[in-house]
Amino acid sequence: MSFASIATLQHEIGRLDAQGLRRRRRTAESACAPHVMVDGRPMLSFNSNDYLGLAGDARIASALQEGVNLYGAGSGASHLVSGHSKAHEELEERLAAFEAPHLERARALYFSTGYMANLAVLAALAAATPGETEIFSDALNHASIIDGTRLARASLTIYPHVDVAALETALAASDARTKMVVTDSVFSMDGDIAPLPALLALCERFGAWLVVDDAHGFGVLGEHGRGALEHFKLRSPQLVYMGTLGKAAGVSGAFVAAHETVIDWLVQRARPYIYTTAAPPALAHALLTSLALIEGREGQQRRAQLELLTHQLAAMPLRAGWRRPVSHTPIQPLIVGGNAQVLDLAQALEGQGIWVTGIRAPTVPAGTARLRITLSAAHTHEDVARLLAALEPMNSEI
Predict the structure, then answer these.
(1) Which residues does the annotation mark as catalytic?
(2) Taking the complete model, does pTM exceed 0.90, yes or no?
Protein backbone atom coordinates (compact mmCIF):
# COMPACT_ATOMS: atom_id res chain seq x y z
CA MET A 1 0.00 0.00 0.00
CA SER A 2 1.49 3.36 -1.01
CA PHE A 3 1.68 6.33 1.33
CA ALA A 4 -0.53 8.98 -0.28
CA SER A 5 -1.41 11.17 2.69
CA ILE A 6 0.59 14.23 1.58
CA ALA A 7 -0.83 14.03 -1.92
CA THR A 8 -4.33 13.65 -0.48
CA LEU A 9 -3.93 16.73 1.68
CA GLN A 10 -2.54 18.73 -1.23
CA HIS A 11 -5.49 17.70 -3.36
CA GLU A 12 -7.97 18.73 -0.67
CA ILE A 13 -6.25 22.08 -0.14
CA GLY A 14 -6.48 22.63 -3.89
CA ARG A 15 -10.20 21.98 -3.72
CA LEU A 16 -10.54 24.58 -0.97
CA ASP A 17 -8.68 27.05 -3.18
CA ALA A 18 -11.01 26.35 -6.08
CA GLN A 19 -14.06 26.95 -3.90
CA GLY A 20 -12.69 30.17 -2.38
CA LEU A 21 -12.55 28.51 1.05
CA ARG A 22 -8.85 28.40 1.84
CA ARG A 23 -8.06 30.23 5.05
CA ARG A 24 -5.01 32.47 5.27
CA ARG A 25 -3.53 34.18 8.27
CA ARG A 26 -2.62 37.84 8.40
CA THR A 27 0.14 39.17 10.65
CA ALA A 28 -0.69 42.05 12.95
CA GLU A 29 2.43 43.98 13.91
CA SER A 30 1.00 46.22 16.62
CA ALA A 31 -1.27 45.96 19.65
CA CYS A 32 -4.92 45.09 19.19
CA ALA A 33 -6.67 48.37 18.39
CA PRO A 34 -8.86 49.94 15.70
CA HIS A 35 -5.75 51.26 13.93
CA VAL A 36 -3.17 48.52 13.41
CA MET A 37 -0.21 47.57 11.24
CA VAL A 38 -1.03 44.46 9.20
CA ASP A 39 1.60 42.86 6.99
CA GLY A 40 3.46 46.16 6.92
CA ARG A 41 0.42 48.33 6.11
CA PRO A 42 -1.59 50.68 8.34
CA MET A 43 -5.19 49.48 8.50
CA LEU A 44 -8.45 50.51 10.12
CA SER A 45 -9.74 47.25 11.58
CA PHE A 46 -13.32 46.18 12.19
CA ASN A 47 -12.30 42.59 12.94
CA SER A 48 -11.49 42.12 16.60
CA ASN A 49 -13.73 41.07 19.48
CA ASP A 50 -12.09 43.70 21.70
CA TYR A 51 -15.50 45.21 22.28
CA LEU A 52 -14.59 47.60 25.08
CA GLY A 53 -11.18 48.54 23.69
CA LEU A 54 -9.35 47.10 26.70
CA ALA A 55 -6.86 44.81 24.94
CA GLY A 56 -4.35 47.65 24.55
CA ASP A 57 -5.23 49.53 27.75
CA ALA A 58 -2.09 50.71 29.51
CA ARG A 59 -3.51 49.99 32.98
CA ILE A 60 -4.17 46.37 32.14
CA ALA A 61 -0.76 46.05 30.49
CA SER A 62 0.81 47.45 33.67
CA ALA A 63 -1.13 44.94 35.78
CA LEU A 64 0.10 42.14 33.51
CA GLN A 65 3.69 43.27 34.01
CA GLU A 66 3.11 43.41 37.75
CA GLY A 67 1.71 39.87 37.57
CA VAL A 68 4.82 38.64 35.78
CA ASN A 69 6.99 40.23 38.47
CA LEU A 70 4.94 38.53 41.17
CA TYR A 71 4.38 35.09 39.64
CA GLY A 72 6.77 34.69 36.71
CA ALA A 73 5.91 33.73 33.14
CA GLY A 74 4.08 30.44 33.66
CA SER A 75 2.23 28.31 36.18
CA GLY A 76 4.37 25.18 35.78
CA ALA A 77 1.64 22.60 36.30
CA SER A 78 -2.06 21.87 36.17
CA HIS A 79 -4.36 23.46 38.75
CA LEU A 80 -4.70 20.20 40.70
CA VAL A 81 -0.96 19.55 40.91
CA SER A 82 0.79 22.80 41.82
CA GLY A 83 -0.27 25.35 39.20
CA HIS A 84 -3.19 26.96 41.05
CA SER A 85 -1.87 30.29 42.27
CA LYS A 86 -3.14 33.03 44.56
CA ALA A 87 -3.87 35.07 41.44
CA HIS A 88 -6.13 32.32 40.06
CA GLU A 89 -7.91 32.04 43.39
CA GLU A 90 -8.47 35.79 43.67
CA LEU A 91 -9.79 35.98 40.12
CA GLU A 92 -12.23 33.12 40.67
CA GLU A 93 -13.52 34.72 43.86
CA ARG A 94 -13.93 38.03 42.06
CA LEU A 95 -15.76 36.43 39.13
CA ALA A 96 -18.08 34.54 41.45
CA ALA A 97 -18.97 37.77 43.24
CA PHE A 98 -19.43 39.50 39.87
CA GLU A 99 -22.04 36.96 38.72
CA ALA A 100 -23.52 36.21 42.17
CA PRO A 101 -26.67 38.31 41.62
CA HIS A 102 -27.76 35.76 39.01
CA LEU A 103 -26.58 32.45 40.47
CA GLU A 104 -27.37 30.82 43.79
CA ARG A 105 -24.33 30.03 45.97
CA ALA A 106 -22.10 31.04 43.10
CA ARG A 107 -18.56 29.89 42.52
CA ALA A 108 -16.38 30.31 39.45
CA LEU A 109 -13.67 28.29 37.71
CA TYR A 110 -11.03 29.84 35.43
CA PHE A 111 -10.13 28.14 32.13
CA SER A 112 -7.41 28.81 29.57
CA THR A 113 -9.97 29.32 26.76
CA GLY A 114 -13.70 29.45 26.22
CA TYR A 115 -13.40 26.45 23.91
CA MET A 116 -12.00 24.37 26.76
CA ALA A 117 -14.67 25.65 29.13
CA ASN A 118 -17.50 24.51 26.86
CA LEU A 119 -15.92 21.10 26.35
CA ALA A 120 -15.52 20.78 30.09
CA VAL A 121 -19.04 21.77 31.10
CA LEU A 122 -20.94 19.64 28.62
CA ALA A 123 -18.83 16.52 29.03
CA ALA A 124 -18.65 16.73 32.83
CA LEU A 125 -22.37 17.32 33.39
CA ALA A 126 -23.18 14.43 31.04
CA ALA A 127 -20.71 12.21 32.94
CA ALA A 128 -22.85 12.47 36.08
CA THR A 129 -25.52 10.30 34.41
CA PRO A 130 -23.76 8.32 31.66
CA GLY A 131 -26.15 6.99 29.05
CA GLU A 132 -29.02 8.96 30.58
CA THR A 133 -28.28 12.49 29.34
CA GLU A 134 -29.81 14.43 26.48
CA ILE A 135 -28.43 17.73 25.22
CA PHE A 136 -30.58 20.26 23.38
CA SER A 137 -28.46 22.60 21.28
CA ASP A 138 -29.39 25.63 19.15
CA ALA A 139 -28.68 25.05 15.47
CA LEU A 140 -26.35 28.08 15.26
CA ASN A 141 -24.28 27.39 18.36
CA HIS A 142 -20.52 27.91 18.28
CA ALA A 143 -18.14 25.16 17.19
CA SER A 144 -16.91 24.70 20.76
CA ILE A 145 -20.45 23.77 21.84
CA ILE A 146 -20.79 21.39 18.91
CA ASP A 147 -17.53 19.68 19.88
CA GLY A 148 -18.58 19.66 23.53
CA THR A 149 -21.75 17.77 22.68
CA ARG A 150 -19.65 15.21 20.81
CA LEU A 151 -17.28 14.80 23.73
CA ALA A 152 -20.23 14.37 26.09
CA ARG A 153 -21.34 11.18 24.29
CA ALA A 154 -24.92 12.00 25.13
CA SER A 155 -28.11 11.95 23.10
CA LEU A 156 -28.31 15.14 21.07
CA THR A 157 -31.26 17.13 19.79
CA ILE A 158 -30.53 20.18 17.63
CA TYR A 159 -33.45 22.59 17.67
CA PRO A 160 -34.01 25.30 15.01
CA HIS A 161 -32.36 28.62 15.76
CA VAL A 162 -34.05 30.38 18.74
CA ASP A 163 -37.20 28.26 18.17
CA VAL A 164 -38.66 28.08 21.67
CA ALA A 165 -41.72 26.10 20.58
CA ALA A 166 -39.59 23.40 18.93
CA LEU A 167 -37.43 23.17 22.04
CA GLU A 168 -40.51 22.82 24.23
CA THR A 169 -41.74 19.92 22.12
CA ALA A 170 -38.36 18.20 22.28
CA LEU A 171 -38.04 18.63 26.06
CA ALA A 172 -41.55 17.31 26.61
CA ALA A 173 -40.73 14.20 24.58
CA SER A 174 -37.47 13.46 26.41
CA ASP A 175 -37.26 10.87 29.17
CA ALA A 176 -33.56 11.53 29.85
CA ARG A 177 -32.53 11.66 33.48
CA THR A 178 -30.32 14.69 32.84
CA LYS A 179 -31.40 17.32 30.34
CA MET A 180 -29.17 20.18 29.20
CA VAL A 181 -30.19 23.10 27.02
CA VAL A 182 -27.11 24.86 25.68
CA THR A 183 -27.03 28.10 23.73
CA ASP A 184 -24.89 31.01 22.76
CA SER A 185 -26.22 34.19 24.31
CA VAL A 186 -25.04 36.45 21.47
CA PHE A 187 -24.59 34.47 18.26
CA SER A 188 -21.20 35.25 16.85
CA MET A 189 -22.08 35.44 13.15
CA ASP A 190 -25.46 37.23 13.29
CA GLY A 191 -25.16 39.25 16.51
CA ASP A 192 -28.69 38.33 17.65
CA ILE A 193 -29.45 37.45 21.27
CA ALA A 194 -30.98 34.17 22.42
CA PRO A 195 -34.40 34.36 24.16
CA LEU A 196 -32.90 33.39 27.49
CA PRO A 197 -35.93 34.17 29.70
CA ALA A 198 -38.10 31.79 27.64
CA LEU A 199 -35.35 29.15 27.59
CA LEU A 200 -34.89 29.35 31.35
CA ALA A 201 -38.64 29.06 31.91
CA LEU A 202 -38.63 25.82 29.89
CA CYS A 203 -35.61 24.50 31.76
CA GLU A 204 -37.25 25.15 35.12
CA ARG A 205 -40.46 23.52 33.90
CA PHE A 206 -38.75 20.39 32.58
CA GLY A 207 -35.92 20.13 35.13
CA ALA A 208 -33.07 20.92 32.75
CA TRP A 209 -29.77 22.75 33.03
CA LEU A 210 -29.48 25.94 30.97
CA VAL A 211 -25.86 26.29 29.84
CA VAL A 212 -25.22 29.80 28.48
CA ASP A 213 -22.14 30.62 26.41
CA ASP A 214 -21.88 34.39 26.90
CA ALA A 215 -18.61 34.79 25.01
CA HIS A 216 -19.87 37.86 23.14
CA GLY A 217 -22.11 39.24 25.90
CA PHE A 218 -19.84 39.32 28.92
CA GLY A 219 -18.61 42.87 29.51
CA VAL A 220 -20.97 44.25 26.85
CA LEU A 221 -24.50 43.46 28.03
CA GLY A 222 -26.04 44.61 31.28
CA GLU A 223 -25.70 47.80 33.27
CA HIS A 224 -22.48 46.62 34.93
CA GLY A 225 -21.25 44.44 32.07
CA ARG A 226 -22.16 41.19 33.81
CA GLY A 227 -23.53 39.92 30.54
CA ALA A 228 -26.69 38.30 29.29
CA LEU A 229 -27.94 37.21 32.71
CA GLU A 230 -27.85 40.80 33.93
CA HIS A 231 -29.31 42.03 30.64
CA PHE A 232 -32.38 39.83 31.17
CA LYS A 233 -32.31 40.00 35.00
CA LEU A 234 -32.23 36.21 35.34
CA ARG A 235 -31.47 34.16 38.43
CA SER A 236 -31.67 30.39 38.90
CA PRO A 237 -29.72 27.48 40.39
CA GLN A 238 -30.19 25.74 37.02
CA LEU A 239 -28.00 28.25 35.18
CA VAL A 240 -24.46 27.36 34.18
CA TYR A 241 -22.74 30.44 32.81
CA MET A 242 -19.61 30.64 30.64
CA GLY A 243 -17.95 33.98 29.94
CA THR A 244 -14.78 34.60 27.97
CA LEU A 245 -12.05 36.96 29.10
CA GLY A 246 -10.19 37.51 25.83
CA LYS A 247 -12.92 39.53 24.14
CA ALA A 248 -14.55 42.43 26.03
CA ALA A 249 -12.25 41.82 29.01
CA GLY A 250 -9.24 42.34 26.76
CA VAL A 251 -6.92 39.67 28.19
CA SER A 252 -7.24 35.89 27.87
CA GLY A 253 -9.07 32.85 29.17
CA ALA A 254 -12.62 32.11 30.24
CA PHE A 255 -14.62 31.13 33.30
CA VAL A 256 -17.61 29.06 34.30
CA ALA A 257 -19.84 30.38 37.07
CA ALA A 258 -22.58 28.27 38.62
CA HIS A 259 -23.86 26.82 41.88
CA GLU A 260 -20.93 25.74 44.06
CA THR A 261 -21.81 22.06 43.64
CA VAL A 262 -21.54 22.35 39.85
CA ILE A 263 -18.11 23.92 40.15
CA ASP A 264 -16.96 21.24 42.57
CA TRP A 265 -18.12 18.59 40.10
CA LEU A 266 -16.15 20.26 37.30
CA VAL A 267 -13.02 20.17 39.43
CA GLN A 268 -13.56 16.45 39.94
CA ARG A 269 -14.56 15.42 36.42
CA ALA A 270 -13.85 18.10 33.78
CA ARG A 271 -10.96 16.61 31.80
CA PRO A 272 -10.14 19.85 29.88
CA TYR A 273 -9.60 21.48 33.29
CA ILE A 274 -7.85 18.63 35.10
CA TYR A 275 -5.39 17.58 32.42
CA THR A 276 -3.91 20.85 31.22
CA THR A 277 -1.33 23.28 32.53
CA ALA A 278 -2.92 26.23 34.29
CA ALA A 279 -2.83 29.55 32.45
CA PRO A 280 -0.07 31.95 33.55
CA PRO A 281 -1.01 33.56 36.88
CA ALA A 282 0.00 36.95 35.46
CA LEU A 283 -3.03 36.81 33.17
CA ALA A 284 -5.34 36.24 36.12
CA HIS A 285 -3.69 39.12 37.95
CA ALA A 286 -4.25 41.44 34.98
CA LEU A 287 -7.89 40.40 34.72
CA LEU A 288 -8.59 41.80 38.18
CA THR A 289 -7.89 45.25 36.77
CA SER A 290 -9.98 44.48 33.70
CA LEU A 291 -12.99 43.50 35.81
CA ALA A 292 -12.77 46.71 37.81
CA LEU A 293 -12.86 48.72 34.58
CA ILE A 294 -15.78 46.72 33.17
CA GLU A 295 -17.90 47.13 36.29
CA GLY A 296 -17.18 50.79 37.01
CA ARG A 297 -18.31 54.04 35.47
CA GLU A 298 -15.75 53.83 32.71
CA GLY A 299 -17.20 50.49 31.63
CA GLN A 300 -20.64 52.08 31.44
CA GLN A 301 -19.25 54.89 29.29
CA ARG A 302 -17.59 52.42 26.93
CA ARG A 303 -20.82 50.45 26.55
CA ALA A 304 -22.66 53.70 25.82
CA GLN A 305 -20.10 54.52 23.12
CA LEU A 306 -20.67 51.09 21.57
CA GLU A 307 -24.39 51.75 21.41
CA LEU A 308 -23.86 55.08 19.65
CA LEU A 309 -21.53 53.51 17.10
CA THR A 310 -24.04 50.71 16.47
CA HIS A 311 -26.75 53.25 15.67
CA GLN A 312 -24.39 55.13 13.38
CA LEU A 313 -23.52 52.00 11.42
CA ALA A 314 -27.19 51.00 11.15
CA ALA A 315 -27.83 54.10 9.03
CA MET A 316 -25.91 52.59 6.11
CA PRO A 317 -28.09 52.11 2.99
CA LEU A 318 -28.06 48.64 1.46
CA ARG A 319 -28.00 47.64 -2.19
CA ALA A 320 -30.46 45.06 -3.49
CA GLY A 321 -29.33 41.59 -2.44
CA TRP A 322 -27.46 42.77 0.64
CA ARG A 323 -29.01 42.51 4.05
CA ARG A 324 -28.12 43.25 7.63
CA PRO A 325 -29.66 41.06 10.37
CA VAL A 326 -31.15 42.89 13.32
CA SER A 327 -28.40 43.11 15.94
CA HIS A 328 -28.20 45.27 19.04
CA THR A 329 -24.68 44.10 19.80
CA PRO A 330 -21.22 45.11 18.51
CA ILE A 331 -21.46 42.29 15.95
CA GLN A 332 -22.92 43.93 12.83
CA PRO A 333 -22.86 41.51 9.89
CA LEU A 334 -23.36 42.63 6.31
CA ILE A 335 -24.64 39.63 4.32
CA VAL A 336 -23.74 39.86 0.63
CA GLY A 337 -24.34 36.33 -0.72
CA GLY A 338 -21.66 34.16 -2.28
CA ASN A 339 -18.12 33.42 -1.17
CA ALA A 340 -16.57 35.13 -4.19
CA GLN A 341 -18.68 38.24 -3.63
CA VAL A 342 -17.62 38.68 -0.05
CA LEU A 343 -13.96 38.11 -0.88
CA ASP A 344 -14.16 40.77 -3.61
CA LEU A 345 -15.81 43.19 -1.20
CA ALA A 346 -13.23 42.57 1.53
CA GLN A 347 -10.41 43.03 -0.97
CA ALA A 348 -11.91 46.29 -2.22
CA LEU A 349 -12.10 47.62 1.34
CA GLU A 350 -8.54 46.52 1.98
CA GLY A 351 -7.48 48.57 -1.01
CA GLN A 352 -8.73 51.58 0.95
CA GLY A 353 -6.92 50.56 4.12
CA ILE A 354 -9.95 49.04 5.88
CA TRP A 355 -9.67 45.51 7.25
CA VAL A 356 -12.90 43.52 7.54
CA THR A 357 -12.67 39.77 7.12
CA GLY A 358 -15.11 37.98 4.84
CA ILE A 359 -16.85 35.05 6.52
CA ARG A 360 -17.74 32.29 4.09
CA ALA A 361 -19.63 29.01 3.95
CA PRO A 362 -19.36 26.53 5.59
CA THR A 363 -18.72 28.73 8.66
CA VAL A 364 -22.06 30.34 7.76
CA PRO A 365 -24.83 28.80 5.61
CA ALA A 366 -24.27 28.76 1.85
CA GLY A 367 -25.47 31.96 0.22
CA THR A 368 -24.98 34.03 3.37
CA ALA A 369 -21.30 34.94 3.12
CA ARG A 370 -20.75 38.19 4.96
CA LEU A 371 -18.55 40.89 6.26
CA ARG A 372 -18.54 40.38 10.01
CA ILE A 373 -18.17 44.00 11.08
CA THR A 374 -17.32 44.25 14.76
CA LEU A 375 -17.29 47.48 16.69
CA SER A 376 -15.14 48.51 19.62
CA ALA A 377 -15.58 51.31 22.12
CA ALA A 378 -12.13 52.39 20.96
CA HIS A 379 -13.52 53.17 17.51
CA THR A 380 -14.43 56.79 16.86
CA HIS A 381 -17.38 58.14 14.95
CA GLU A 382 -14.86 59.20 12.31
CA ASP A 383 -13.72 55.56 11.98
CA VAL A 384 -17.27 54.38 11.34
CA ALA A 385 -17.89 57.24 8.94
CA ARG A 386 -14.81 56.18 6.97
CA LEU A 387 -16.15 52.62 6.69
CA LEU A 388 -19.56 53.88 5.56
CA ALA A 389 -17.97 56.16 2.98
CA ALA A 390 -15.90 53.28 1.61
CA LEU A 391 -18.93 50.98 1.36
CA GLU A 392 -21.24 53.52 -0.26
CA PRO A 393 -19.97 53.27 -3.87
CA MET A 394 -19.56 49.50 -3.48
CA ASN A 395 -23.30 49.20 -3.02
CA SER A 396 -23.54 49.30 -6.80
CA GLU A 397 -20.09 48.16 -7.93
CA ILE A 398 -19.54 44.75 -6.33
Answers:
(1) 188, 216, 247
(2) yes
